[in-house]
Design a protein that fits this description.
- The structure is a single chain.
- With 282 residues, the protein is mainly α.
- It has twelve helices and no strands.
Length: 282
């Protein structure tokens, strides 16, 4: 979606860099890494074109029900959309790479975890707490434009939009998960302090990565949305719901889940295995 893809692109970039953390530390600049080339290919060949296709095929859905036809889309917006789908991925990669080169491999993983959670949160809440309704509505099925309160529920998952998304996921999912698993394994093998038996297999890594990007972070976004919706209903104010709910959510997530030793740290450690400079104790 136009309003969210720049965050998703950032999340992809951050994910690629975190996966190739050990390789990034060994090159003069992070942009010399194989993972950066892989990211550019991924964004330019798969991700950006898929977004532009959706914008052309389903302008209503891709703009979160703001536009109804192509005529509602200014040319500059379409151009900017295509650009940010690549540039924001580079920014996400650069940010994680900076953390990696500063010796903070966990911070690089936090970067993508937070980015993916924000991505899902925008879909859940939108700018007016109707994001999930806008997402779960395909006007090509009924021919009726979206309006607040309208959504298709579970029937959305048989809609034209969703079937198109499934078709796009067939190349995009493996194009992200397989290289990420490959770079994690190769990087771990290059460190003598990490023995072979401690390195997860490719299939396990793929499952762990997909569980985080499409499972854990989505779950966090739903919890965030429920908190914001509760405050909205309690106060009768959408701005107040965001002003109170978002800080409360992220402060709670940091102390309960993100701090070292907490559940999300233990999850990320399945991917980075050891932090930089840490020697395996006998």
């Amino acid at each position: 979606m136009v309003q969210v893809d720049f965050v998703w692109s950032y999340a992809f970039g951050a994910t690629f860099a975190a996966a190739a953390a050990r390789q990034i530390r060994k090159v003069e600049t992070p942009f010399q890494s194989e993972s950066f080339t892989g990211l550019l290919l991924f964004l330019s060949i798969l991700f950006a074109p898929s977004g532009l296709y959706l914008l052309w095929r389903f302008p209503h859905w891709e703009t979160m029900q703001v536009a109804r036809t192509w005529g509602d889309l200014p040319a500059w917006l379409v151009c900017l959309f295509g650009i940010t789908n690549i540039t924001q991925g580079i920014l996400g990669y650069w940010t994680s790479a900076r953390l990696v080169r500063g010796g903070n491999i966990y911070g690089a993983h936090v970067n993508w975890i937070v980015a993916w959670t924000i991505f899902w949160s925008i879909l859940v809440m939108g700018w007016d707490t109707t994001g999930w309704q806008r997402f779960l509505y395909d006007s090509t099925v009924s021919g009726i434009p979206w309006s607040p309160g309208r959504h298709m529920g579970l029937s959305f998952f048989t809609s034209n939009v969703f079937l198109t998304l499934v078709g796009m996921a067939v190349p995009i999912g493996p194009a992200m998960a397989i290289p990420v698993a490959k770079w994690i394994r190769e990087g771990a093998k290059s460190y003598q302090s990490i023995t072979e038996e401690r390195i997860p297999g490719t299939a396990k890594l793929i499952l762990v990565v997909l569980a985080g990007t499409f499972g854990i972070t989505l779950g966090l976004a739903v919890v965030c949305g429920l908190l914001v919706f509760f405050i909205r209903d309690l106060t009768g104010s959408i701005p107040l719901a965001y002003a109170i709910g978002l800080p409360a959510f992220w402060i709670t997530v940091y102390f309960l889940l993100l701090k070292r030793g907490r559940p999300l740290y233990l999850y990320a450690r399945l991917l980075f295995i050891d932090e930089f400079g840490k020697k395996r104790s006998n």
